[in-house]
């Protein structure tokens, strides 16, 4: 069984910063891409940022220059540093990872339970 557990959400004022963390655990053989997605009220889930095993990153245009994704391959963790937060960043943020586990023995996409980020005065 593989689990992704997020932490670090909360309430922050516009212009502030938050750091989200996600740890993968379970019968993990290896992890391919990892990333963060978000869903704002009344909208569909959208990509925020992704990072490959080798560290190549991809960001949504709306967060470029403000958010930074990083990962620790030895610890099976991925982080999202969010700076200069705006009210429109308010959403539930989900960790995502493509993981090869002992069973069923192939890469599958996994999601965390989500963590709420609220940007408000």
Q: In short, what is this structure?
A:
The protein has 121 residues and is mainly β. It has strands spanning 2-7, 10-12, 18-26, 28-39, 46-51, 57-59, 67-72, 77-82, 91-101, 107-111, 115-119.
Topology:
Layout: E1 2-7, E2 10-12, E3 18-26, E4 28-39, E5 46-51, E6 57-59, E7 67-72, E8 77-82, E9 91-101, E10 107-111, E11 115-119
Parallel strand pairs: 2-11
Antiparallel strand pairs: 1-3, 3-8, 4-5, 4-9, 5-6, 7-8, 9-10, 9-11
Overview of the structural elements:
The chain has 121 residues and is mostly beta strands. The protein has strands at residues 2-7, 10-12, 18-26, 28-39, 46-51, 57-59, 67-72, 77-82, 91-101, 107-111, 115-119. The model has no long low-confidence stretch (mean pLDDT 96).
């Amino acid at each position: 069984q593989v689990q992704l557990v997020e932490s670090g959400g909360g309430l922050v004022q516009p212009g502030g910063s938050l750091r989200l963390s996600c740890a993968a655990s379970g019968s993990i053989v290896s992890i391919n891409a990892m990333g963060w997605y978000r869903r704002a009220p009344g909208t569909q889930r959208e990509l925020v940022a992704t990072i490959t095993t080798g560290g190549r990153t991809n960001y949504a245009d709306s967060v470029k220059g403000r958010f930074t994704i990083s990962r620790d391959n030895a610890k099976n963790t991925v982080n999202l540093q969010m700076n200069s937060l705006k009210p429109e960043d308010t959403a539930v943020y989900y960790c995502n990872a493509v993981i090869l586990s002992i069973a069923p023995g192939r890469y599958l996409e996994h999601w965390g339970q989500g963590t709420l980020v609220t940007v408000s005065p």
